[in-house]
# Entry
Amino acid sequence: MNPFSNISYQGQSISPNALQSFQLPSGGSYVFPYGVFLAKPGPQTAIQFKDYNSGLWKNFSSGPNDFPVYIGSDGTNYRAINLSGTINGATVTTPGTGYTQAGTTISFAAPTSGVTATGTPIIGGSLTATVTAGGSNYTNPIVLIDPPQVGGGTPGLCIPATARVGLTAGVISSITFDFAGAGYVAIPNITILDATGTGAVITAAIANGTAASGGLTGIVMTNYGSGYDGTHIPAITVNGPTGSSGTAAATALPNLALTSVTVGGTNTGYTATVIVESSLGASASAPLNIFGDTVLPRPARATIAQSGGVLGTATIEDAGIGFQTVPLLKQVGNATADGSVNATFTAVVGGVNNTLTVWQIG
# Structure
């Protein structure tokens, strides 16, 4: 069989040497069949690869991008997914105690209209660490921590830890976890990479118990869901076995885009089209950290034309991505476009459609 012949995969036909475009709705995904491809994702679409060691999908590239992404697929290891209106992860706020891997489940509340997100809990195996020797002459240290599966962690039930260190006059004085990991069953090695520094020793320990009886340390998303919006961020319910205590809790991390703009207030006196731009999400302006992966939100931008001095319907130029909450909107532009009393602008966020363009080249 010629692997580069026309392939029908998940209902989508791929033809060699022909550009093809697909519509991906909120949460919609396309797994690339076997072959070599150039792909151009939409503004809210990410190209992801499957990390078989951890069992997690990882972002490889995301739009908007003027350059296509080169993909060599084995038929299972690359996908494109529209992340808008989805739940990309969760932050554990209370680990609890006495939970077991086999006896614990989680559930997400459903969106108003769409697909309910699903995930698998990870019990036990997060890390703590102490600096036992600070070394000397460090200038730009990088912390390298063995992933859980190196010590026997189960792929799909383990998430690597990430950390950074503090320096005092070239000596490593502290270590801070950005994510303490989940599913470690053996104490990992922690290595400090630096061109000039030597002698530092950091010792790790496992916290929050084990999978046999421990605390909730992470949640692996098995389905990001679709159709979530800024007013329906889902609650997470943790169901544990008899004997679990200190009720575990987690907060969902949505990934939202701008879907429309509501114009209110005193909307008069406008003489030209105005531009509005968004914040990165009210009370969520910092980069989002989902289990060690930093996700940078992108602000949204829209134009609103006037007629008779009154602003009409917004045209969204870039819906943005990565909002965890409803972002703030502010009018920008020259003063002559400002109304006699500025109108107010309220963002509506959720999922948007994206176009994925694919070209099979081998």
